[in-house]
Amino acid sequence: MSIDKDSINWLNNLLGSSIKFGEPMSKHTYFRVGGPADVFICPDNVEKLQEVLCWSKDKRIPYTVIGDGSNLVVRDKGIPGIVIVLTKCLN
Ligand SMILES: Cc1cc2nc3c(=O)[nH]c(=O)nc-3n(C[C@H](O)[C@H](O)[C@H](O)COP(=O)(O)OP(=O)(O)OC[C@H]3O[C@@H](n4cnc5c(N)ncnc54)[C@H](O)[C@@H]3O)c2cc1C
After folding, report:
1. Any domain includes 91
2. Looking at the chain, which terminus has fewer C-beta neighbours within 10 angstroms, N or C?
3. Which pLDDT score is estimated for 91?
């Protein structure tokens, strides 16, 4: 799934260092397996989380919420769309 340039700029402006593109899920799973997430975010607060969720629904971009990745096996192809980790904004 490709994320268009305007969307990348919008996401970067909103999330700054809390966003990564093509992030290996093997870094975020207990079993250290898994290909890239198109977009990987750890929103700083609930307001930014809400903005991203509304935006992803508008753009029809799928999102997956994960925790510590201790009950996840991710395929080598990775996860399309947005992977959201809530440990920062809902700690
Ligand atoms: C060595 C080991 C021992 C374990 N021992 C136990 C045990 O004794 N008892 C036990 O019950 N489990 C155990 N587990 C399994 C695991 O730790 C639990 O299932 C734990 O609750 C998973 O939490 P997580 O945050 O890592 O979830 P993740 O692995 O990150 O996610 C698991 C699933 O939950 C979904 N999910 C996560 N967060 C959210 C959210 N906020 N909203 C919506 N969906 C969400 C994910 O999309 C995914 O489908 C063990 C795992 C390992 C590796």
Report:
1. no
2. C
3. 65
DSSP state of 60: T
Q: Which residues line ligand 1 (CB under 6 A)?
A: 30, 64-72, 86
| 20 occurs within a structural domain | yes
Residues 46-78: pLDDT tens digits? 999 999 999 999 999 999 999 999 999 999 999
Total structural domains in the chain? Answer: 1
Q: Determine which residue's CA is closest to atom 9 belonging to ligand 1.
A: 71
Structure token pair of residue 43: 């929103």
With respect to residue 90, please indicate whether it lies within any of the assigned structural domains. no
Which one of 65, 66, 72, 85 would you pick to mutate in the ligand 1 pocket, going by the greatest count of ligand atoms within 8 A of its CB? Answer: 66
Domain range for 50: 5-85
* pTM for this entry: 0.90
What's the 85 CA to ligand 1 centre distance in angstroms?
Answer: 13
Q: At what angle do helices 5-15 and 46-58 cross, to 10 degrees?
A: 170
Using DSSP, state whether 51 is helix, strand or coil.
helix
